[in-house]
Design goal:
Arc Repressor Mutant, subunit A, 2 strands, two-stranded antiparallel sheet, mainly alpha, 5 helices
């Protein structure tokens, strides 16, 4: 069975996580990265920004553990961080989003075009 274009996009992004092994990293760590990546991908269009604190609340994981795995995703150039004001408006937080490559942008455009034709 052939994958649809959205499955191809997810596969292309997730394979980069699975292919890059950091020194001393376990398989469980890579599965955590895939899970966090998927959450960022899913949530990035919400009104509430995707932050490490939000991910920690959602998953029940410690913010430090989330930060360690997010750093790996940033190092792989899969996630980008943008400074935003924190909820109290006094400090800074980082909004997380997917960092696309030219190839993934083309797939997103194809998905967008296909879904507009179905509306």
């Amino acid at each position: 069975m052939q994958q649809n274009i959205s499955q191809q996009l997810i596969r292309m992004l997730v394979e980069r996580i699975l292919a890059e092994v950091f020194p001393g990293e376990t398989g469980a760590s890579r599965v955590q990265q895939v899970g966090l990546f998927t959450l960022v991908y899913m949530l990035q269009g919400d009104r509430e920004p995707v932050t490490a604190a939000r991910l920690a609340r959602m998953t029940g994981q410690a913010a430090g553990d989330i930060g360690v795995q997010l750093k790996k995703l940033v190092d792989l150039k899969l996630i980008e961080r943008t400074k935003i004001p924190n909820k109290q408006g006094r400090g800074r937080a980082f909004a997380l989003s997917i960092k696309h490559t030219p190839k993934t942008r083309r797939l997103l455009a194809a998905i967008d075009k296909a879904t507009k034709g179905k509306r």
